[in-house]
Amino acid sequence: MVVSRIDELGGAPGGKGPPLQALARRLSIQISAVTHALKPLVRDGVVEIQVDPDDRRTKRAVLTAQGMKQTRQMYELWAGVNTRLDAALGAGAAQELRALSRRVASPEFLAAMSLRKYD
Fold first, then answer.
1. Domain range 2-64, its CATH number among 3.40.50.1260, 1.10.10.10, 3.90.76.10, 3.90.230.10
2. Can you tell me the distance from the alpha carbon of 117 to that of 4, in angstroms, rounded to the nearest whole number?
3. Potential cystine with 62: which of 17, 25, 74, 92 (Cβ 3.0-4.6 Å)?
């Protein structure tokens, strides 16, 4: 999930890549969780952490060539999963499931959930 968000936010090789703070906001997690999640990706050569040349206080996540290759493979696998889901549930039910998943993952849903008081 982290890699796909880096890709979404412009983290392709040669690009600036998203600031870690923006990545944390997009994932609805704290910056410390982002840095923890990135450590194995950096170790495995999928992501590089780069200091922003315009603001040295800012760190950015950039996919490596290996990271881009794995991202393409991930999207191909995900397309296959979606094809199987359509076949198993039917196109209409699969579309409803995707819509509900998007709703549950939305910032609005997360905000609504954080406003509720838990007993």
1. 1.10.10.10
2. 32
3. 17
Please state the domain extents for the chain: 2-64, 68-115
> Tens digits of per-residue pLDDT, 97-114?
999 999 998 888 888 887
CA 17, 71, 7: angle at the middle one, nearest 5? Answer: 25
pTM of the entire structure? 0.69
Residue ranges of the chain with pLDDT lower than 70? 1, 4, 6-14, 115-119
Euclidean distance between CA atoms 84 and 30, whole angstroms: 34
